[in-house]
Amino acid sequence: MKDCVVVGGGLIGMLSAHELALAGVQVTIVERGQTGQESSWAGGGILSPLYPWRYPDAVNDLARWGQARYQRLADALYEQSDIDPEWQQSGLLMLDVADQAEALAWAERRAVRLEVLVDEAIAHCDAALPAFQGSALWMPEVAQIRNPRLLSALRKVLEQRGVVFEEQTEVLGFQQEGGRVVAVETSQGVRHAGKVVIASGAWSRALLDDLGAGIEIEPVRGQMLLYKGEPGLLKTIVMADGHYVIPRRDGHVLVGSTVEYVGFDKSTTTAAADALRQIAETLVPALAEVAVVRHWAGLRPGSLEGVPYIGEHPEITGLYVNTGHFRNGVVLGYASAKLLGDIVLGRQSDFEVSRYAIER
């Protein structure tokens, strides 16, 4: 019998497995498809909530913990896997923010570096930006990470630590004895375990619906575009009206994303592609001369105010959840895994556990 089965092989599931494996727990990850191929792969990897002052402290506390430690994690994974997750401090420039006063008050309260830029000063952030007239908010300390490379590095390190991956394996149910979970029923057979963690993103709610714990999660489609330009075409993450443009080291530029409540439909649409192109080429005119090389969609686990569910099932001992990160799975993922590990292993936590409980 394995010590723990983690249901879900996205970034949240793998980071959770990593935290537990570091403590000596034997972990099996069960994934309905391929590991890291859902919203974890599809997102942008910005290591900050978008417009962070609009989120509750429960979100920003997780984000801040991870922001202070993600570079060290990336370096450690690179050293152990020889795959560079490409952590880099790009800064975040937000154009035409209506609630600047709230943003500045939030930044002062939380001691976050945030500056107001006006007119010509905006274009000075990056040579690829046109001459905007107006004001913007600049967070120079915001970093990014290349999430597909982070996932690849993490998987390699987990395999080195003995974590078992079972892909193309659907979870059908859970076995209990005396109010405690004892096994996971899968399409490949029964997997006995002393502890089970549900980290299945948008699919988590369905797994919990029959277990007496209703969590408010729904799939939210996000469509993205990828340009391939020359390295250095853009150096800064730029945002406007909730959309972002993210430069990668090799010249790729990501543009996203839509927020669509269409159930589990992951199809892409021409309308979204056209809208994203218009946004990207308005913010960075040089992209009009660059090829779009990919268009895709992912399903994020939408939750109330973006606060994830992290904790033990209120009625079933040994059954835990780590899900519901909405648009902030990458930036919140590291701290979420730390919190989950604290709860599973009975450690004192840096976080206020009740904020994230299923029954909150």
The helix/strand series, from N terminus to C terminus, equals: EHEHHHEHEHEHEEEEHEEEEHEEEH
User: Low-confidence segments, ≥5 residues, pLDDT <50?
Assistant: none
- Cα gyration radius (Å): 20 Å
Globally, the shape reads globular
Number of domains: 1
Largest sheet: 8 strands, mixed
| Helical content (DSSP H or I, runs of 4+) | 25-40%
CATH class call: Alpha Beta
CATH architecture name: 3-Layer(bba) Sandwich
The class by helix and strand makeup works out as alpha/beta
Strand content: 25-35%
**SS field, number of helical segments:** 10
The rounded distance between the terminal residues' Cα atoms is: 32 Å
State the CATH superfamily name: FAD/NAD(P)-binding domain
In the CATH hierarchy, the third-tier topology is known as FAD/NAD(P)-binding domain
How many β-strands, per DSSP?
A: 16
| Average pLDDT figure | 94
Walk me through this protein's architecture.
There is one protein chain. With 360 residues, the protein is of the alpha/beta class. It has a single domain, classed as FAD/NAD(P)-binding domain (3-Layer(bba) Sandwich). Helices cover 29% and strands 27% of the residues. The protein has 10 helices and 16 strands. Strand 1, helix 1 and strand 2 form a beta-alpha-beta unit. It is globular, with a radius of gyration of 20 Å. The mean pLDDT is 94.
Please name the defining characteristics of this protein.
single chain, 360 residues, alpha/beta, FAD/NAD(P)-binding domain, eight-stranded mixed sheet, 10 helices, 16 strands, 27% strand, globular
Indicate the topology.
Blueprint lengths: L1 E6 L3 H12 L4 E4 L8 H4 L14 H11 L2 H12 L10 E4 L4 H11 L4 E4 L1 H4 L11 E5 L7 H14 L3 E3 L4 E7 L2 E7 L2 E10 L5 H5 L8 E12 L8 E4 L2 E5 L4 E5 L13 H14 L7 E13 L5 E4 L6 E5 L5 H17 L15
Parallel strand pairs: 1-2, 1-9, 2-6, 3-11, 9-16
Antiparallel strand pairs: 3-5, 4-5, 7-8, 8-9, 10-13, 10-14, 11-12, 12-13, 15-16
